[in-house]
Amino acid sequence: TLLGELNIALNQHLPFTMGWLPNSESAEQYDLDLDLMSGVLNVKHISSGITYHRSMFISHPAQVMCIRYTSDSPKAINMDIILNRIGISEATTMDPRRPGRRVSAGGWPAPRVDSIRNIDERTMLMRGNDAGVEFAAAVRVVCDGEIENPVSQLVTKECSEVILYLASATSNRVKDPVADVIQRLDAAEKRGFDALRVEHIRDFTSLMNRCVLQLGSNLSEKYTDQRIAAVRAGKNDPGLAALYFQLGRYLIVSGGREGSSALNLQGIWNHQFTPMWDSKYTININLQMNYWPVEVTNLSELHMPLMELLEKMHERGRDTAQVMYGMRGMVCHHNTDFYGDCAPQDWYMAAMPWITGSAWLGLHVWEHYLYTKDVNILKRMYPVLRDMVLFYQDFLIEVDGKLVTCPSVSPENRYVLPDGYDTPICVGPTMDNQILREFFTACIKIQELLGVDQELSAALAEMIPRLPENKIGSKGQLLEWDQEYPELTPGHSHLSHLFACHPGCSINWRDTPDLMQAVRKSLEIRAAHGGAEGGWPLAWHINMYARLLDGEQTDKCIREMLARSAARNLLNARGVFQIDGNLGAAAGIAECLLQSHLALHFLPALPATWQNGSVTGLRARGARTVDLRWESGNLIEAIVRPDFDGEIEVVGKPLKVTCGTVEIPVQITDIGFSFYGESGKSYRLTTLN
To answer: Which listed site, 3, 212, 347, 434, has its alpha carbon 20 to 30 Å from 117?
Structure first.
C-alpha cells in the first residue's frame, strides 16, 4: 500500500516524487492534521493493528523537508524509499514475488532523470538536466533499525523510528546543485529533527501569527470535508471561512518566501510535466490575484518575489519593445515565465496581444509603498516603472481626441460585430483606460516623492485627461469596449472592465456612485449567465461586492466558494487546481473586514452571518496595523497602530479615540472623522456613550 507520496516543484513547475512504501497490510483509520499556524503536518493511521505516526514540515531556515515516522509497536516500521520525477504508481509496479510490495516499473535511470543512485548506505541522490537546467534532489535516512540499499532505493527494516531529510536544488539558484543538497542534508542531520522542528515553528509562526481571524464558534473538532459537506447542505459555518482565509495566508508563506520564485498558476504545487496552462505566470488577472492578500494580511515582505520577477522582465521587456514594436521602454504580454519572457505567447488572439499587464504589475509596486511607506522600493523599482511609461507614451494613438491602446483586447473576451462575426481585437478597451489612468497617476506621485523626472511627470499629467472615460450602457452596465457591442459570452469569467472598482479604486462609493451602480449591474449580468460559478472568477466577485459594501452578496459568494470550489483539503479545485482562487478569496474576506483605499473603513461589508468575531494584525494603507472586535454585527473596538506620524481618517460616525488613558481629539470630515496618530503608539477606538 502506498502510504506516502510527495510532489515538489523543480525549476518552478516540474515535479519530482519521493515515495515511502511500508511493508504492511492495507492502512485504515487515517487522521491527517495540518496545523496552518505552525506549518506542521501530522498523520496517524492503523495497519495490522499497529498505529503509525508521521510528522512532516519543510524548514525555510534549513531549506530541508523533515519527516519522522514512528509506531506504537517496537521494530514495526519497514519501508522502501524511492526518488523519482513521476508518481510512484507510474515509476513502480507490483512485485509478483512479494504480494503488496512494489518494484521498479522499468530500467533505471527513470524517466526524465539522468541518474538515481545511492551515494552511501543512507543517502540516495537523483540528478539530471532539463531544458538546460541542472537539478538534484537527495534523501537521507536516519533510523534505529537496519538499512539496505539496493540500486535506486533505500530499504529500512525493523525500525521503531525513521527520520527522512530531503533537499533539492537547481542550477538557476545555486552553482552546484549536488553539492548544495548534500551540504544541507549533512547540516540537517547534525542538528537533528527536534531542533529543526523548533526552529521551523518559530520561523513559520512569526509570519502566520501576525494576522489571526476568529469567526463564530470553533468547529475544528470536525473534519474539514464534513464541514464542507455541511456548507453544501446549507449550514452556516463562519469558522470555515476563517480557516479558508488562513489557508490562503499559509499557501503564500509556504510557497512564496523571500528569495523564491513568484507564485504561478499552481503556486508551486504541481504534479504534472504538462500542467494546465503550463503552470505559467498569467498576467491578465491570475498572477496579480495571487498577491492581493499579501499587504492587507500582513505578509508584506512576501511581495518581493513579484518585484524580483518584474526586475527579470525589465531587460527582456525592453528587448520586446524595441525589436517587436520599435518603441522605447519595456512591454510584456499576457504570459511570462521564471526568466521574465515578455514576448507574445501562443496563438490565442483573445489574450496574446494584450500589452497593459505590465502597468497592472507596476501598480503592485505602488500598493506595496502605500502599505509600508518604504521609499526604497520606489527607488529600486522606478527604472522599471519609468520604462513602462515610455512604452505607453509611444504606443498610445489618438482617436477622436482620445489616447487609446490599439490594437488591444479586453482579456480573453470577444464581442459580436454588426455582420455577425465575433472578434477580440479592439481599440481602447475599458480595462486599458482604467489601468493606465491609475498607473500614470501613481507614477506622478512616485516622481514627486523621489524628486525625479519633472518633464515626464508633466507629460503624464497632460495624458491622463485624454484617456477615454468610463461609459454606461443601455442596461445600466459599465461598457467593456468603446461602444456597446453584444458580448459573445455574457457570462465571461473576467471582470476586466470593472478593474477600477477592484483591485483599482478610481471607481468608489464616495467619488463615483453612479459608476458603482454600473459595476453592480455588470456583476449581476455576469452572474446571471454563469460567470461566477467558482474559482478565481468567484474570488473576484467576492472582492467586488466587498467594495460595493454589500455584505449579503459577499457572504453568498464566500459560501458558494466553499460549497462548490473547495476540495476536501480546501484547495480551490473546481475542475483544475489553481491557487489564485484561494488567494483571491482570502483577500476578499479581508476586504469585508477592513478597507483603506479612501480611509480606514471598519467592517465595510460584514456578512450578517458573521455576527461575532475578531481579527488582529490586518494592515491598512498608510502603514497602519488594525485589530477589530465586533459583537452582534456591531463594532466593539478597533485598535490602530501607525508606523508613521500623521492624520488618520476613518469612515463613519465619530468614535471615541484614546491612547492609554488620554482621549484624543477628532475632527469631522466629509466621510467620517480623523485624528492625529504618532508612530509606535496604539489608539483604541470605541463607540461614544
So the answer is: 3
